Inverse folding.
C-alpha cells in the first residue's frame, strides 16, 4: 500500500516495516530444537531448492481457484475498506494459462473511510511472494541460515532464516523464515514479508505486511493453500491495520483429454460455492496468534 497524500494515507496493501538485508526477521519458533541434521546443511539446501524447482514447474500444470481478500481495519477490528477477488487459474482451449475472474465486487479500499489502496507491488506479491517458492534458480539471491528443527504437528522440519543478499531496483524478494519437511525436503510453511518497502522522495510510501503461508500435500508436492497476514503498518502519518487472507483451492492437474469445470466469469455477482480440497497430508497448524487452524496428518 502506498502513502500518496500527506494529509490522507493512501497506502498500498503491502504492509510492514522495512527490514535490512542480513537482519533476522525474528519470529522465534516456539519449539525450536538446536539439533544438527544428519547430512550437511549445504546438502539440504541444495536438495530442497532442486525439489522446489520441480514443484514450481509442476504447479504450472495445475488449475486452481484463488480467493484474495485484503482489508483495512480500524482499532476495533471493523472493516473500513475491502478488496476481494475470486479467480480460477486455468488453461484455454489452446493450452495457454489464463485467469478467469469469478467474483470481483468493486473495491472499497481507498474510499472513505478507508485510506488504503492497492498498487502493482501488492498484486505482484500475491502472485510471487505469498506462495513463496525458493528454487535452485533463485537460491543464489538469498542468504540462508540454519536455525534448528521444529516439529509442527506430525511434520518434523528444518527451519531456515532467509534474507536477500542484495536488493535490485524494481525486484521483489522474500525475507523471513521457512520450514522444510525433513522427509520430502520441500517447504511446508513460510513466515515473513515481501521486501523492500518503498519510500519515495515526495513522501510516497508503500509498505508491506508480515504473513504466514501454509502448504498441503497434493499428489507428491506441497502446494500453498492458505496465507494470512494481520499487521500494523507504520506510515509517517500514522499506523494502519491490515488483514489479508488468500486461499488456494481445488488444485487439479491439467490433462488435455480431461474436461475441467470452473465458475463462470461474473462482475460483482456471488461466486460459486467454493469446492473442497482433499489430500492425504494437511498443512501444519497455523500459528495460534492468527486465530485459525488446520491440522497436519502425515501417513
Amino acid at each position: 500500500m502506498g502513502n500518496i497524500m500527506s494529509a490522507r494515507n493512501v497506502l498500498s496493501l503491502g504492509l510492514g516495516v522495512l527490514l535490512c538485508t542480513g537482519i533476522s526477521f525474528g519470529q522465534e519458533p516456539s519449539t525450536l530444537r538446536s539439533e544438527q541434521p544428519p547430512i550437511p546443511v549445504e546438502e539440504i539446501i541444495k536438495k530442497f531448492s532442486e525439489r522446489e524447482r520441480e514443484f514450481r514447474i509442476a504447479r504450472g500444470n495445475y488449475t486452481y481457484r484463488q480467493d484474495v481478500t485484503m482489508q483495512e481495519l480500524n482499532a476495533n477490528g471493523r472493516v473500513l475498506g475491502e478488496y476481494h477477488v475470486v479467480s480460477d487459474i486455468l488453461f484455454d482451449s489452446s493450452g495457454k494459462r489464463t485467469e478467469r475472474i469469478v467474483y470481483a465486487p468493486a473495491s472499497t479500499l481507498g474510499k472513505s473511510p478507508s485510506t488504503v489502496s492497492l498498487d502493482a507491488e501488492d498484486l505482484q506479491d500475491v502472485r510471487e511472494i505469498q506462495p513463496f517458492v525458493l528454487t535452485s534458480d533463485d537460491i543464489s539471491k538469498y542468504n540462508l541460515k540454519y536455525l534448528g528443527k521444529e516439529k509442527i504437528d506430525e511434520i518434523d522440519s528444518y527451519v531456515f532464516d532467509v534474507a536477500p543478499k542484495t536488493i535490485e531496483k524494481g525486484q521483489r524478494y522474500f525475507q523471513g523464515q521457512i520450514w522444510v519437511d525433513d522427509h520430502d525436503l520441500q517447504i511446508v510453511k513460510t513466515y515473513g514479508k515481501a521486501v523492500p518497502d518503498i519510500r519515495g522522495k515526495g513522501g510516497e510510501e508503500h509498505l508491506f505486511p508480515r504473513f504466514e503461508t501454509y502448504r498441503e500435500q497434493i499428489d507428491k508436492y506441497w502446494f500453498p493453500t492458505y496465507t494470512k497476514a494481520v499487521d500494523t503498518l507504520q506510515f509517517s502519518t500514522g499506523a494502519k491495520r491490515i488483514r489479508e487472507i488468500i486461499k488456494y483451492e481445488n488444485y487439479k492437474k491439467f490433462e488435455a483429454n480431461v474436461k475441467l469445470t470452473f465458475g463462470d466469469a461474473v462482475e460483482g455477482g456471488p461466486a460459486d460455492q467454493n469446492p473442497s480440497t482433499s489430500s492425504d497430508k494437511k498443512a501444519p497448524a497455523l500459528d495460534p496468534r492468527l486465530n485459525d487452524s488446520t491440522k497436519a496428518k502425515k501417513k
Observations:
- The chain is about 10% helix and 40% strand.
- The helical segments are 41-59, 120-128.
- Residues 2-290 form one domain.
- The first strand starts at residue 2 and ends at 3.
